[in-house]
Amino acid sequence: MDFRLSEDNLLLEQAAKDFSARAIIPQAHIYDESAEFPKSIFKEAHASGFFNLTIPEKYAGIGLSSLATSLVIERLAYGCSGVTTSIVANDLALTPIVIAGTEEQKEKFVKPICQKGDFASFCLSEPGAGSDVSSLSCKLQKVEGGYLLNGNKQWITNGGYSSQFTVFAKLDTLIDEKNKAEKHKSICCVVVSRSSEGVTIGKSENKLGQRCSNTTTVSFENVFVPNDCLIGKEGEGFYTAMKTLDFTRPMTAAIAVGIASRAFDEAMSYSFQRKQFGQQIFDFQAIQSILADAGTDIDAARLLTLRAATMADNGEKNSLESSMAKRFAADSAMRITTDAVQVFGGYGYTKDYPVEKLMRDAKLMQIYEGTSQVQRIVIAKELQKKFKK
Ligand code: CAA
Fold first, then answer.
1. pLDDT (tens digit, 9 = 90+) per residue, 72-109?
2. Using CA atoms, how far apart are residues 65 and 309, in angstroms rounded to an integer?
3. What is the pTM of this model?
4. Cβ–Cβ contacts within 10 Å for residue 61, how many?
């Protein structure tokens, strides 16, 4: 075990840090305020090679390892997690096709998106099915040459800007109403073009944090999905979704580490500037205690993240480690950003300083891509399997 990063990864990390400092940080608070989708940043990120990071070069992605991707993402999220969520959402939407699609499907549905710098969205959650994926109600009905898709998806990242949707829905012929335990076995994964007749994008959510990342509903009404848009086999969609989330959760954890380490840096430097009772506030043990815990937890979250990413790179099953990383990094980010506001006192509660944004942004990390409670379910299930072996 070697905790040092390779020369290549150090260079990549520095490049991401520079990009974040130049292209993201100066504009982050402006886009937070306006909740506008920062198209110019995304254009620059695409041109600079900070988009579609995990997608193989063969399909016009950057082809980074999961480890290298986590390093880059942490640096981008240090600048703005809203921007980074929208960037990572493309990997999330395209990964099911990379994992389970045929060669032709990867050429047809992954490559053009990456080449053009387009957005794609992962459509799993629904108004009535968030944590409980297998109870989703979007339906596919078999028809001549393909399927008809009906239903509503919610919390769709980049929904308003995506040209393609990776949709999870239940196939009518596989639904077995009596066998509730196997309800996930009717779920299929399909690719739907935004231009298909019957696709409607709903309003953009006005969110507490990560405000510049676009989040919408997407509705499908009798949308024709040709046979060649089915990814994997019929009934395999749930497994594809879970494998995708195993792969992307380390990246989400890296976003949380980025938010936390920015809050930590801001709080550290403020604690040296701010004087009370005739000394810099860093010299008070109460403040040192906050900062010591933050520094420790950031390192721990980063190490958990890099371990989960390395396992993905080695082709090992990492459900347990991915969920541990996501859970710990998200919960740590929430606490660390709240503590950073505390270190800043009244100033931290205003928009004149960056920490209140970080606190709002951190909250989402405990909710999307599986809540902290869902991560604990996965962790407990996986630990139970290990224990019983
Ligand atoms: N890999 C492969 N197979 C898996 C798996 C994995 N990681 N996890 C479960 N499975 C398999 C199981 O082995 C089981 O197989 P069998 O059919 O052979 O029995 C099957 O899938 C069903 O598994 P469970 O019984 O564990 O399923 P469950 O219904 O109890 O659900 C859950 C488990 C972990 C709670 C799951 O529903 C889940 O992950 N929920 C959270 C969903 C989530 O993260 N949503 C976020 C959406 S994306 C988002 O937020 C993105 C955005 O835009 C920002």
1. 999 999 999 999 999 999 999 999 999 999 999 999 99
2. 8
3. 0.97
4. 23
* Among candidate residues 363, 369, 309, the one with its CA nearest the CA of residue 73: 309
**For 352, phi and psi rounded to 5 degrees?**
-75, -15
- The pLDDT value recorded for residue 336 is 98
- 117-143 in b/e form (b: 16+ CB < 10 A) is ebbbbbbbbbeebbeebbebebbbbee
The single residue listed with the structure tokens 């989040």 is: 215
Ligand 1 centroid, distance to 242 Cα (angstroms): 5
Tens of pLDDT, residues 183-236? 899 999 999 999 999 999 999 999 999 999 999 999 999 999 999 999 999 999
Protein residues with CB under 6 Å of any ligand 1 atom: 89, 92, 122, 124-125, 131-134, 157, 184, 238-239, 242-243, 245-246, 319, 368-370, 374, 377-378
Task: Give the CA-trace dihedral at 167, 248, 372, 366, to 10 degrees.
Answer: -90
Q: Count of alpha carbons within 13 Å of 120, Cβ hemisphere only?
A: 29
What is the token pair recorded at 307? 């371990």
CB contact at 8 A, 260 and 304: no
Tokens of 388: 């019983």
Walk me through the domains of the chain, giving residue ranges and CATH numbers: 7-116 (1.10.540.10), 120-235 (2.40.110.10), 239-388 (1.20.140.10)
